[in-house]
Amino acid sequence: MTSLPSSIKFNVGGRHFEVSRDLIEQQPESMLRRMVSEAWHPDTEKTIFIDRNSDIFAQAMEYLRYGSVVLPVSMPKEMFFRDVDYYGLSFEDGAIKDGDEVIAELKEENARMKNEVIPELREENARMKTEIAKWKEWRAKGLIRGQRAVEEMNSSLDRTLQSLRRVPRRSAQL
Prior knowledge:
mainly alpha, two-stranded parallel ribbon, 6 helices, 55% helix
């Protein structure tokens, strides 16, 4: 048995790819894995030709690399699944999203921001303005003197800023 190269060359629909063998071997029962085996492909230096859509192949490789993929708007899920099935790749539910799904998620997140986060920010902004106005008034009246007063004012402003940091952030999973 000869030593297998660490990468595999594909020509998919006229577009050339070089992919790590480890990436393909993540799914040992797949057709892709069989295609690169010595039994099916004894000349390991030769490029493997696959007569399929190269854009879909590129997305399939992205899926293998990252465990999920967002398909371009120009690529219907059905087309992607057809080729993924041909390659014999298995995938997790929800790991493949198309542009419409991402747009729907972004719209949902936008609505949540409008209904929850923005009102919270407005409320916190009002609290901050009240706190700042209070300190300005005390300073104008000469009530803030000395290091202790400055520390108290800084502490109050720090608490206000910390409460701002607790405002929910947009999910990084989108």
